[in-house]
Design brief:
The protein has five helices and 32 strands. By secondary structure, the protein is mainly beta.
Length: 553
């Protein structure tokens, strides 16, 4: 499930994005821990092509109320032995829209409610419900129309929620989660003179029930970990003339074996294998992985390798199945072989940390659009006539391939007087093989990505403090796959946050996104009204101010 509000925001055809959105539906106050694990992975992890983001929900914090330009928030936190946390938000823009304020023809609204209850230390029950709406009106006069979107009244709504439990019993872990999401988008041409100017109604509905269980058995320096992952999916997607309505399940039992050597300088070995059955594609895959580490003081060297598989996204399957003469080909699971060599420098009591790795990934059995030299798994789902009129298949019966290789690095350094610096970046190359057997750039082959953050805490008298935080994000030029003569400019943005606290209960926060007011390219799209490619630009500087009042102790 995509846990984001306004997941159509910023997409080129106002379609719901599979993995992004305008606002995270999970407030940061309810997240206790968030980790990202790249491939390869071990058998106990859920199946994922690029990596896994794992999070746990907090049952600690403060009771507070908060008001800001982004949203109104309230949180309740019990301090008893059985922990209860409740958190609710309502968008300020939505509140103003309800009062009749016009935001350039758009009405935007989101709201969510989160609840976590921990009756004992080892059991947690959690859940969330959320909704968002994004409605856009066509321009008032046909003479004001500049691009196709100006003609349209677009109504978009999204409803999502989940409920689950996490149980920890000694070295045993159980997690059970049910999630639901439904998106509906309708568009109407205001100036279409025909009797029925209704253009389209696109709808997607997903219900998932997932279970993950793992048991650790320790004997001396050995650890044996049997595990099982299971998921039941009920997916319904309707896009124009294409549709998907399927119930499927995935079952993945696995076994990992780990051994830790003796001595100050030592090796550790972990080998795992899982057997994955996917009823949607009716495929069974073996997915092995290995991880060998060498420890020597503050230095950790590791070599990883693994083979996993993943099905293409449900919206893409809906389009593919609705327009393909080769049903089996579009259901094939893409395979991914990954390997990396890493070095971590983590000295004890040091304020300096360094992590770096060299990686190589090879994807094969990629579905492609037969006459566009286009691999949707790498370039994204494109909802246009080219895709609708095409069909997906392996080319001449041969598996299509892609490869990614590069270097990652991360530096974390705590300087003097509360000054902290974090720097992470990647240099990489991502290409796929087209129908002429040439290696070409994928849309997201930026070449390099750099993120840098610096923070400083200043303490004043009488318990007052000021926290300053600034971040830079920079990445190379993105490719325009539909029109290879074009390329988006390199993207960069600087953000700033200042948080002032006084009397331990009052917090004033100023967030300024895109401090330099940089106007970045978003994407090119072909506009049928102007009959040419148009450039969409991203937002300029966005200042957000909020006040938080902590209640109780």
């Amino acid at each position: 499930m995509n846990p984001n509000h306004l997941s159509n925001a910023g997409t080129r055809f106002d379609q719901s994005s599979i993995a992004a959105g305008g606002v995270l539906a999970l407030p940061f106050e309810v997240i206790e821990d968030l980790t990202f694990t790249s491939t390869p992975r071990n058998a106990s992890s859920f199946n994922s092509m690029s990596g896994l983001m794992d999070l746990s929900f907090s049952d600690d914090g403060n009771t507070f109320v908060k008001a800001g330009l982004l949203g109104m928030e309230a949180s309740f936190q019990s301090n008893k032995k059985s922990r209860l946390k409740a958190h609710a938000r309502y968008s300020t823009v939505g509140l103003l829209s309800d009062m009749g304020v016009d935001f350039d023809g758009e009405s935007i609204n989101f709201q969510d409610f989160f609840l976590s209850f921990r009756p004992t230390k080892n059991i947690q029950v959690f859940g969330m419900i959320a909704s968002s709406n994004n409605d856009k009106s066509a321009v008032d006069s046909f003479s004001l129309v500049e691009v196709q979107k100006d003609l349209l009244d677009i109504n978009y709504s999204s409803r999502l929620g989940f409920v689950g439990t996490h149980i920890r019993l000694g070295l045993t872990r159980h997690s059970l989660v049910a999630s639901y999401k439904k998106d509906i988008r309708t568009s109407l041409n205001k100036y279409d003179p025909s009797p029925s100017p209704f253009l389209s109604r696109d709808e997607s509905e997903y219900l998932k029930i997932s279970y993950a269980g793992r048991q650790k058995i320790k004997i001396a320096n050995f650890t044996l970990s049997p595990s099982v992952n299971a998921q039941v999916n009920k997916d319904k997607v309707n896009f124009n003339d294409s549709s998907l309505d399927e119930t499927s399940f995935i079952l993945e039992p696995g076994l990992s074996f780990a051994f830790l050597g003796n001595g100050d300088a030592q090796f550790s070995y972990e080998f795992s294998v899982s057997g994955l059955y996917d009823s949607f594609s009716d495929e069974f895959q073996f997915e092995p992985s290995a991880n060998v580490q060498y420890f020597n003081g503050a230095h950790v060297f590791s070599v990883q390798a693994g083979l996993i598989s993943q099905a293409i996204s449900r919206p893409l399957q809906a389009v593919a199945i609705g327009n393909s003469n080769n049903h089996d080909a579009v259901l094939d699971r893409t395979r991914n072989f990954s390997t990396s060599l890493s070095w971590k420098f983590l000295p004890e009591l040091s304020k300096f940390k360094l992590l770096t790795s060299v990686f190589y990934k090879r994807l094969y059995n990629l579905p492609g659009i037969n006459y566009l030299d286009y691999m949707p798994l790498l370039n994204g789902v494109v909802y246009n006539d080219k895709l609708i009129n095409g069909y997906l298949l392996t080319i001449d019966g041969e598996p299509q391939v892609a490869r990614s290789l590069g270097v990652d690095i991360m530096v974390d350094y705590e300087l003097l007087n509360g000054l902290n610096l974090n720097l992470n970046g990647s240099i990489f190359d991502l290409k796929y093989r087209d129908f002429q057997d040439n290696w070409v750039d994928a849309r997201y082959n930026f070449g390099h990505v750099v993120n840098a953050t610096i923070s400083k805490r200043i303490e004043f008298d009488n318990g007052k403090s000021l926290m300053l935080h600034s971040g830079l994000h920079y990445r190379g030029a993105a490719k325009v796959i539909e029109d290879r003569t074009r390329e988006l400019r390199p993207y960069w943005r600087i953000d700033l946050r200042a948080k002032y606290t006084w009397r331990e209960r009052n917090v004033l926060i100023l967030d300024i996104q895109n401090v330099t007011n940089r106007i970045n390219d978003a994407y090119y799209y072909f506009d049928s009204f102007t009959n040419q490619y148009e450039l969409e630009e991203q937002l300029t500087m966005i200042p957000i101010i909020s006040y938080k009042r902590i209640l109780g102790k």
